[in-house]
Amino acid sequence: MVRPSLLLFAALPAIAAEVTHIGETGRVIAISRDEGREWKLGEQVCAYRLGQEKGCGVVIKLIKKGALIKLPVANFEIAKGDQVQSVELGRSPASDRPELLSSSVKPSESRFRWDLTGGLNVTSSFFFPTLHLQVSPFPRITVGLLLSYVDSSLGSTTLTAFGVSATVGYYTQDNFRGFWVQGGAGRYYKSNAPTGNVTAGAFLLTAGWRGYWDLGLNIGAAAGIHYISNTKVTTVGSQASELQPLLLFDIGVNF
User: What is the DSSP letter of 39?
Assistant: First the structure.
């Protein structure tokens, strides 16, 4: 006698392979096994969500839980959980696997990424290290928090100041890649005995490029303008211009 539980198990559709990891460069993804079989080196596979093809690549390495796939170009349309199928030249993959028409992965899930960078901002009268945390809730749009630190001295006078700014950015490629424009506004705070505490409003506007390394690091360079309403907060000695040219360099990671 066949048990009901075995009949139920036999009636269930086979579980398709899926994307389990996206590489930082967008060129390599990891996939699970396909119904328990082994993938083959050089085999071509495609990823699907709701029946729509998101990208294709070739098996370059077999791993314990599946395989690594190399894509011809960086592709951040593919998301963790997308279903994967082996592709034979000249056929329509989606029509062969009806189960690919359903997916529990929301398209927006792979878009919510963070970027943390440390860098150096240089103006015509001072320079300062920065720590910048950005989040990308929408494709190519970022919002962030920029922390700045200024420490300089002239003779017996020492200046220490801290800055906090909110930023908004836009990238021409998927999040944190390509040509990049950014605007930000915030305040600087200086605690300096004998002159007392001083605060000043500030804003910046930059344009530049952010690239990606295979090591998972990204590096950015930009130029623009920096404005501060009271230069005594950031400058010791002679009075500096409130509006100054700005160069920005940083390096960081996505997570």
Answer: P
For residue range 52-81, list pLDDT tens digits in order: 898 999 999 888 888 999 998 888 889 888
Residue 65 burial class via C-beta count within 10 angstroms: exposed 0-12, middle 13-18, buried 19 and up? exposed
Residues 216-250 have pLDDT tens digits of 688 999 999 999 887 776 665 555 678 999 999 99
The span from the CA of 168 to the CA of 180, in Å, is 11
What is the amino acid identity at position 75?
N
DSSP lists the bridge partners of residue 239 as none
3-state secondary structure of 8: helix
The predicted model scores a pTM of 0.58
Q: From the centroid of its chain, how far is CA 114?
A: 5
Structure tokens at 96: 């062969």
CATH code of the domain covering residue 59: 2.40.10
Name the residue among 204, 170, 160 with its Cα closest to residue 186: 204
Q: Is the dihedral of CA 52, 54, 57, 63 positive or negative?
A: negative
State the DSSP code for 99. Answer: G
102 lies in the same domain as 125: no
Q: Give the CATH number for residue 124.
A: 2.40.160.20
User: Which DSSP symbol is given to 64?
Assistant: T
Range of the domain at 78: 16-110
- Distance of alpha carbon 222 from alpha carbon 171, whole angstroms: 13
Helix (H) or strand (E) holding 136: strand 127-138
Strand partners, 173: none
